[in-house]
Design brief:
The chain contains 9 helices and 11 strands. By secondary structure, it is α/β, with parallel strands linked by helices. The strands form 3 sheets. It has a 6-stranded mixed sheet. The N terminus is likely disordered.
């Protein structure tokens, strides 16, 4: 480099450095802050959720999968209220039937603390503040009441109110709100029988090991109509004070899908899909006397 050009080179370098230290030598487009609403929409883009398996929606439920919530113990056939609801939610989220993968998840495991291997679980799980400490829930997809099923020959069959149930042997599945109603509302003189699964409770009822069992109302009508015809629905419990009991889809506590799944459930409720599916699959669950 010729020594005479050094001052010019030095001046040019200084100008470049000065330009870089400022906001820019030429006008620049103003950066816009991200739109939270747009981000929420993008995160729920049809078929593009951050699911367990890309492009698939993994849905959990227990086995056996009981009627009338499922049919023929086969969640993937789309028959039964909860199977139909699961596929309706999947469609609302942008996933066709071939993109839905079913996974066996024991009832109590669905809402136990810990990471989940499903995107959501559907298995008659009632939303409660206690369960919310371990998992997240979608909006409720079904308003439910608990009911008492007793053998027609049992003294429990004559019950007209909650007090009449205090001196009978009651049973229910472990971890359920059915059991909560027995323990917190009825408060029977004899400790209730607790079963790992509902089919064990039904067997105990059929063989007379218990006078009555408590289950949700649609299940009660299915049991008496198709499984234990010698039993009858004695009545249903009134709603607890405050919010009605609802079944909700269960998600991992930190799931990024919760708002999207709730949005899908809300849309299905608003457009009448949930009501139509309830009428189709739970039509036998007519009103029963309220036990007060």
């Amino acid at each position: 480099m010729h020594l005479a050009n050094r001052p010019l080179v030095t001046a040019l370098c200084s100008a470049v450095a000065l330009c870089a230290s400022l906001t820019g030598c030429a006008p620049q487009a103003e950066e816009k802050a991200p739109d939270p609403a747009a981000g929420a929409t993008a995160s729920c883009a049809p078929g593009k959720l951050a699911t367990q398996v890309s492009g698939k929606l993994t849905v959990g439920t227990d086995k056996p999968a009981y009627a009338p919530w499922f049919a023929d113990d086969e969640p993937s056939n789309g028959k039964g209220f909860e199977s139909a609801v699961a596929y309706a939610v999947a469609k609302e989220l942008g996933y066709g039937r071939d993109a839905v993968v079913w996974q066996h998840v024991p009832f109590n495991s669905a809402f136990a603390p810990g990471a989940k291997k499903f995107d959501f679980d559907i298995n008659q799980v009632s939303v409660s503040e206690e369960r919310k400490k371990a998992v997240a829930f979608s909006s409720g997809y079904y308003d439910v009441r608990q009911a008492v099923v007793a053998l027609k020959s049992s003294k429990a069959a004559k019950a007209k109110n909650v007090t009449d149930l205090k001196d009978v042997k009651l049973g229910a599945q472990v971890g359920t709100t059915s059991l909560d109603f027995i323990e917190d509302l009825v408060k029977p003189a004899e400790k209730p029988a607790v079963y790992q699964r509902n089919d064990f409770a039904k067997s105990a009822l059929k063989t007379g090991q218990v006078d009555a069992i408590v289950v949700d109302l649609p299940t009660a009508f299915y049991i008496t109509g198709a499984e234990v015809p010698e039993a009858e629905v004695v009545g249903q419990f009134a709603d607890s004070p405050g919010e009605p009991e609802q079944f909700g889809l269960v998600l991992d506590k930190e799931s990024a899908l919760t708002s999207c799944v709730s949005g899908a459930v809300d849309a299905l409720r608003k457009d009448g899909t949930l009501a139509a599916l309830e009428k189709e699959w739970l039509s036998d669950a007519v009103d029963a006397p309220v036990l007060k």
